[in-house]
UniProtKB/TrEMBL annotation:
Organism, scientific name: Pallidibacillus pasinlerensis
Record-given protein name: YqeG family HAD IIIA-type phosphatase
Gene3D superfamilies cross-referenced by the UniProt entry: HAD superfamily/HAD-like (3.40.50.1000)
InterPro entries: HAD-like_sf (IPR036412), HAD-SF_hydro_IA (IPR006439), HAD-SF_hydro_IIIA (IPR006549), HAD_sf (IPR023214), PGPP1/Gep4 (IPR010021)
Domain of life per record: Bacteria
Length: 176
């Protein structure tokens, strides 16, 4: 049962997901979470480094859709200046938003990855929807009140994965 929470890949940060990383996996599209995946949950806009990352992806023909459980105001304020399509109130780990994002990308599922910082929403939802999933270390150690509860459960699952040799986490090693 816990295998539903196991990502296909894991990285220390979003910037390890390079065009080369994607080409090795024949990936042309990214469905990504927003809060604590791309930027801190309380940072309203993209950092210059993140703007550059999006630019590099675009230059290599990689499409991106942001899928967030957050509200429209938050997701629009972040995504609109970057001209990146988005889905808000996604209700992850339900799979409906992932299907919708795939249609927005116009790509087949096997050419698309799901990226996020949470096992209980991003990875579980992406796995349930049949995508290649990539877990990133959260960009900050603070969370919104709702996410704090998920993190307690997540830590137990990550410990179990570590114990079984399925995933080494948080600064020990990235990649799989």
């Amino acid at each position: 049962m816990l295998k539903k929470f196991l990502p296909n890949d894991y990285v220390k940060n979003i910037f390890e997901i390079t065009p080369e990383f994607l080409k090795e996996r024949d990936i042309k599209g990214i469905i990504t979470d927003l809060d604590n995946t791309l930027v801190e949950w309380d940072r309203p806009l993209a950092t210059p480094e993140l703007v550059e990352w999006f630019s590099i992806l675009k230059k290599h023909g990689i499409k991106v859709v942001i899928v967030s459980n957050n509200n429209e105001t938050r997701v629009n304020k972040f995504s609109q200046p970057l001209n990146i399509p988005y889905i808000f109130n996604a209700r992850k780990p339900r799979i409906k938003a992932y299907k919708q994002a795939l249609q927005m990308l116009g790509l087949p599922k096997d050419e698309t990855i799901v990226v996020g910082d949470q096992l209980l929403t991003d990875v579980l939802g992406g796995n349930r929807a049949g995508f290649h999933t990539v877990l990133v270390v959260p960009v900050t150690h603070t969370d919104s009140t709702i996410t704090k509860f998920n993190r307690m459960i997540e830590r137990r699952i990550l410990k179990w994965f570590n114990k079984k040799g399925l995933l080494e986490w948080e600064g020990q090693r990235s990649g799989k």
